[in-house]
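To close the section, here is one more complete example, presented without commentary so you can practise reading it yourself. The ligand is iron/sulfur cluster.
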Amino acid sequence: MRARIALLQLYRLGVLLAVAWLIRAHHTRLRVEGDRPVRVEEVAGWFTNAAGLRLDLAARGGFHVFDRDGAELGYLIRTLPQADRIIGYCGITDTLVALDREGRVLGFKIRHSEDTKTHVGDVMADRHFKQTWNGMTWEQVAGMDLKKAGVEGVSGATMTSLAVAEGIVHRFRVAQGEMRPPTMRVGVRDFGLMTVLALGAWLTFTKREGRERWRRWFQWLVIGYVGLLNGDLLAQSLLAGWAKSGMAWRMAPGLVLFAAAAFAVPWVARRPLYCQQLCPHGAAQEIVTRLAPARWRVNVPAALDRALLDFDLAGLEAFDAYLIRSAGGATIAVAIAGLLAALCVPKAYCKYGCPTGALLEFVRARGAGDKFGRRDLAAGVMLLVAFVMHWQHAAIHALIFGPAA
Ligand code: SF4
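Output:
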């Protein structure tokens, strides 16, 4: 029995992590490939037995090149989109740069350019210019001063060639900057959030007398400090942003810890720490319900309850409303509607409308009676479909938009 429950918990956590990984991989792919996926045939000039490319999710953001047996042959980068502000004669140029296994440049080629065709042809025909970076390491290219290095461009296609040169150096430099680990910044806000987190955890696990009274005061602190002052609510936009670009643990370690506890505590200890103690909108709804006269309370009929639970309200997130200066009208309306609903139905928004609550509930342990249900099956099937789409991305892209030029 214990093993079954543990497996179920691991499955749910695995689904969540896999979704985060897929979002990250897809986002990186879109950033790196844009609307022109790189094809393995494009690298045949450098790697004759290349059989596959694997996207690199790390800061370099290129592709590992493999042969049929899976042995790595080298590395490939594309200058777009990082170099999309570097305009040559009349447009941008997309260049591929290949590196060998030791990280030394093998050469470059223009895969697409908005510049005049004859200029592009002249650049690719200039053997001297084409060898400008050959043999250089990543650091050497990133640190290159084109003027000092005497790169003057190709006669008759000066602007196009210089744009190509600047694009290559810029691309290496941007990745070099991203590879440098930024320093961690821990500020007052992080300590504040950690204190709120510690108090919330204490209220969750303590059995001391007067707990409920303390909890009521604590709710005002959560609304005022976490919500209105900091706007640190665990919104879907925040979680999706982290999944896409990585957690902001260096810039906002307090918030990352806050989010980690929100997922870890229910997963390990079954207690919905965030929803019960730390969510400003949950606390606000509870206060509204307490202040409303008991006669206003309504029992939602079972049929309507079921219909509301089935209705997808995931796009109606209320949390940005706490950032009062920048909140849009729609999100404020959703927040107010949720509070008004709480006058009659306790935590109505939590029950029927909150995507973050649903996500936290998905990973929460539910004890011995927990079973693999329809929701788990649906999550698994959708994940499988997403994996297949990710795996077959190039084929699907070609099917919809036609083969890459
Ligand atoms: S369900 Fe949503 S609104 Fe309610 S407490 Fe949880 S996170 Fe907050």
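Once you have examined the tokens, check your reading against these statements. Residues 203 and 211 are 7 Å apart (CA to CA). Residues 192-372 form one domain.
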